[in-house]
Design the sequence.
């Protein structure tokens, strides 16, 4: 299996090259040159997440004997926490897929841990002697997941850039409390400055970008859709439908790739916040990037989702896309009203991102179809929004509690690449 750019399919790369480069040389995103086709019978003997993962991902690693051999171990290492699929009390056909039980309490743990495990394996099999540097700019969730995933892995160091004073104290803690091989830099500027410095650094140094468009983060996100789809299909004989809180569309592209492989996945409903570029695209058939609108579901504040290129490449026809993919927006007021009643209606307090999915569910008519709401983060990460709405404290997950008790370390730098280099002593 080979990987091509969404912008030019004439040159192809191996999985290893694609994982290491992150983005295609022409600025496009990597997609498979053709999709393998899996039969449901291939999954007959597996039901646990890491085992489903190995069967699902094997075709993508064909051609790389090292990674293929290590794949079962990489999957086990990445999926070292539970992903429950819970029926919603009082609702016959609704389920919640809880992706937030990982080390940093958000679904990005799955992709970040898989990428980290792949890189650790490559360092070992390639007998690399100099350390591999991973760099990432973050406005919140991503940096924490990447830091946690790479923390303590041998032969790798991690540099995280965040906009100083512009993220919540709890988010900052999740970037700065690791120590060890994780270095956090507070940039005196905005998120865009952090991103610019990372882009420049990647041109100047052979560092790895751990941003969310890396294949090593997209591929493993197929796992939980495959697993949940199989679990419901075995029960009912019908493919369940999914509602996915969406921003940059990485999580939902993974669902669509799993569907394309032949897994039992029905409609994929994209739940957005007030950022409406994707909803407009489905309506008009023309994609127009928008400026980003800040909302309560801030990990989904994306005006021009980069993974739209992968979606368009998967669905060259807008009519085919409209058959499989639906989308809605939720305003901040709608998000708040969902959170307020979430314990009663959904059996748990929902985070602002997951609330957009619950809002979307309200707009879908009740019929025989099953819907799986994808819960992307724990409400405890967004306590300043959620606690006043539900009127009580949200208990912290253990992993988060531990991290928040560690001392913070970060270096403040001016918003220039030269400042990063001098802080690193280069
Ligand atoms: C990143 C994130 C999203 C959006 O995921 P995309 O893959 O960018 O669409 C949704 N919810 C949470 C909690 C996130 O951290």
Sequence:
């Amino acid at each position: 299996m080979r990987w091509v750019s969404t912008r030019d399919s004439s040159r192809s790369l191996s999985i290893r090259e694609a994982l290491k480069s992150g983005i295609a040389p022409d600025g496009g995103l990597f997609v498979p040159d053709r999709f393998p086709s899996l039969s449901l019978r291939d999954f007959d003997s597996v039901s646990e997440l890491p085992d489903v993962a190995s069967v699902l991902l094997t075709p993508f690693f064909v051609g790389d004997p090292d990674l293929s051999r290590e794949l079962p171990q990489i999957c086990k290492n990445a999926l070292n926490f539970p992903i429950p699929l819970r029926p919603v009390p009082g609702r016959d056909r609704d389920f919640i897929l809880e992706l937030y039980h990982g080390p940093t309490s958000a679904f990005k743990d799955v992709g970040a841990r898989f990428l980290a495990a792949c890189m650790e394996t490559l360092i070992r099999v390639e007998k690399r002697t100099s350390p591999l540097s991973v760099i990432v700019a973050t406005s919140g969730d991503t940096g924490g997941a990447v830091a946690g995933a790479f923390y303590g892995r041998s032969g790798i160091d991690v540099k995280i850039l965040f906009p100083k004073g512009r993220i919540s104290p709890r988010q900052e803690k999740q970037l700065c409390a690791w120590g060890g091989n994780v270095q956090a830099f507070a940039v005196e500027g905005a998120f865009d400055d952090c991103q610019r410095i990372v882009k420049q650094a990647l041109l100047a140094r052979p560092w790895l970008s751990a941003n969310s468009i890396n294949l090593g983060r997209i591929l493993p996100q197929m796992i939980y859709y495959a697993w949940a789809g199989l679990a419901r299909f075995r029960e009912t004989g019908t493919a369940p439908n999914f509602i996915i809180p969406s921003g940059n569309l990485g999580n939902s592209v993974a669902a669509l790739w799993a569907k394309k492989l032949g897994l039992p996945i029905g409609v994929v409903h994209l739940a957005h916040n007030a950022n409406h570029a994707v909803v407009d695209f489905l309506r008009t058939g023309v994609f127009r990037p928008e400026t980003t609108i800040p909302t309560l579901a801030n990990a989904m504040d994306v005006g021009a989702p980069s993974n739209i290129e992968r979606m368009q490449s998967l669905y060259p026809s807008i009519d085919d896309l409209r058959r499989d993919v639906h989308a809605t927006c939720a305003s901040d007021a709608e998000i708040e009203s969902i959170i307020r009643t979430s314990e009663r209606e959904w059996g748990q307090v929902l985070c602002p991102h997951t609330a957009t999915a619950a809002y979307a569910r309200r707009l879908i008519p009740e019929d025989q179809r099953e819907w799986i709401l994808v819960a992307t983060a724990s409400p405890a990460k967004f306590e300043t929004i959620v606690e006043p709405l539900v009127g009580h404290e949200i208990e912290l997950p253990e992993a988060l509690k531990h991290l928040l008790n560690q001392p913070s370390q970060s270096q403040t730098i001016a918003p220039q690449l030269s400042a990063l280099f001098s802080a690193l002593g280069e």
About this structure: The pocket of pyridoxal-5'-phosphate is lined by residues 106, 108, 141, 212, 245-252, 299-300, 353, 376-377 (CB under 6 Å).
